[in-house]
Amino acid sequence: MNLSLASIDRVVVRGTNWVGDAVMTVPALRALRQLFPHAHITLATRSWAKGLFAEADFIDDLMVHEGTGLQSVVQQVRQWRTRTFDVAVLFPNSLEAALVASLSRVPLRIGYGTDGRHRLLTHSVNLPEWRSSKHEVFYYLNIVERLRRVANHPDSVHSQGPDGSLMVSETRQSAALDLLRAKGVKGINEPGSRHARPLIALCPGSINSRAKRWPAERFAALADQLIDELDAEILLIGSAAEAEVSQEVLAQMRNAGTMLTGATGLDELVAVLSVSDLLVTNDTGPAHIAAALGRPTLVIFGPTNPLTTRPFSESGEIVREPPDCAPCMLRDCPIDHRCMTAISPDQVFKRAQAMLASKLQFVI
What we know:
The chain contains 14 helices and 12 strands.
């Protein structure tokens, strides 16, 4: 089945289920907009994505679904059928995503032919051999490139460098600064102005893997060193599910930090990261958000593969001391967590200090 670009009016994209993955689909979403500049593009996703894509110029609207199982499938099919989509682009590899698109009678359905779902797709894309050696953004771009060939569009989606950037309006940034002032944070200035003191966010948690967590006592030691030597303001960020580990970090700090973990929605967290001077984090969602916003981001890597999931931005850097067993991709370390314990607070501090000096011209 081929299609005419001019005949495509409505495109639906089934989004991913994790924040970090969602950020890594941004280059593909931007490429899709370039492919169909006049079509209405809907992102079908979870409600949390509103905070991430609130001001995105590459989609037209969000269609939110919740729940799991049969009830969720029925809800989605009803939603999709009312929109009469021409094309469905499926980023997740789940059987459910393909089933919803098929039951909704979308004429062209494209995605990876995994989990036996190729019969539900009109265009099944083979898994690339390079998946474990190239960044995940190219995994999603590969689907749009296949769609580009189906549509006989002359320009490859790879003709320009992938653009994974996100933007936050000055209005949202001002609201984030007001939130920080209400929490007692000192020395912060308006959007576009350098703060009087480095504003550094720390994300010591990770929802789906304990093995990805640098030890809480090391985050605490790093926070104290940032305060003692750089006069920094420290923000602890993350979701409500990560509140316990952030509290553990605060309890082990000699100095005071500001607890934001679980106290902000994703929309507020995105805005807070957009006005922060630096994020130090495990390999988790906020790492991708901050880097996409162009904010200096330092990611501590242990069991996961930086070739595929490091921040896709020049503003992102990693710290890693891999043993022979890394990357193992395990959610819990069966031995002594050596990939993380090999990284010292002083090592991370020196990298953070250098990033502040080179990228933000802080005199430190």
